[in-house]
Amino acid sequence: MHEATIAERGEAGTLPAWGAVVSMSLGVFGLVGAEFLPASLLTPMAAELGVTEGMAGQAVTATAAVALVTSLLIVAATRRIDRRYVLVGFSLLLILSNLLVAMAPNLPLLLAGRILLGIALGGFWTMSAATIMRLVPERDVPKALSILFSGVSAATIFAAPMGSYLGDIAGWRMVFVAAAGLGVLALATQLATLPSLPPRGQSRFGTLLEVLSRKVVGIAMAAILLVFTGHFAFFTYIRPFLETVTGVGVAGISGILFAFGVANFLGNYLGAFLLQHSMRLTLALMPLVMGTLAIALASFGGDLMADAAMVALWGLAFGAVPVAWSTWITRAVPDEAESAGGLFVAAINFAIATGAAVGGLLFDFSGIASVFVASGAVLIVAAFTIVAGVQTRLVPKPA
């Protein structure tokens, strides 16, 4: 049966287009993997380009900044283009970005390549939830989103260690060539499986403000900011905690972070399971668990096995978070899921910067324990905000 027919049935509420869902997961794996690569290759990149590691690190900053801007503009900018072509275009940008970085003779061209990645990353994430809800019936959306986000977890687990290993063997440029090859695989799979997805509605730049002005969306975005700010304040400074409090070396840190990544992968599917029973419970329980763990680590950390178990449990809980919130978007803002997705992506990128910055100030001022206590407090406030104010039933478009 032709994939387009399957997808049309998916929109009508019968047969899901799982091949297209898997193709999007491959795209996510390629995008997030490319985003993480500089972290494991920073030293050789800086040495060959003749810049400091701090300057080379701007490759990450450039990607995040452009992703933030793109998430807010892409829906209106592409409002008349078939979503199949838009998503395929993002995969093309992924390939071009990696090839440009691989061939870059200097820092400006390397940053240009990373800017292309930021456009692809921000755009793809913005449209992901809205696309998934068109590929599968409503009952299968949580499962489809868990498959999509498994690409993120897989990239988290494999990108940095494999990038470091391959870079040591073949050089950092060949690592980005290999990443471009993954982009080609994602592109080919998307061309084979993604159906035509004509644009819906007439989203314009003002649509973002209209969606944000809805009470249900405004409260949810505040909760999202709290959840992701709390998470990234914790996660950004997990290594110094493990070094100074738990007292483990590089090998131990790698093992604990690998366990975090595996647990995060499983958390995607835990989220899909819990959403079948209660969306409000899923949205609120995960930050409550994470906040409790952060405070427990700050108060009782120091035992290797206990700390490793708590970090892994954190990964499990956080794995359910993006699945739950993306599902919330498809149910609470079905008429403007793309615009709501753009706000979601923008909120996450803002939270990454905020969590890392505030966490750094606390770390320098009063030590790592204060970072984890603050992270825990923010996450617990997020949980209560969700229980008290976030609607989880389908919300029709205002008249």
Short structural description:
84% of the residues lie in helices and 0% in strands.
Notes on the protein architecture:
The protein is an all-alpha fold and about 400 residues long. The protein has 2 domains: about 5-195, Growth Hormone, Chain: A (Up-down Bundle); about 205-390, MFS general substrate transporter like domains (Growth Hormone, Chain: A), CATH 1.20.1250.20. About 85% of the residues lie in helices and about 0% in strands. The protein has helices spanning about 5-10, 20-50, 55, 60-75, 85-105, 105-135, 140-170, 170-195, 205-215, 215-235, 240-245, 250-275, 280-300, 305-330, 335-365, 370-390. Helix 7 (about 140-170) packs antiparallel against helix 8. The longest helix is centred in the first third of the chain and has 32 residues, at about 20-50. The radius of gyration is 20 Å and the shape is globular. Mean pLDDT is about 85; it is low at about 1-10 and about 395-399.
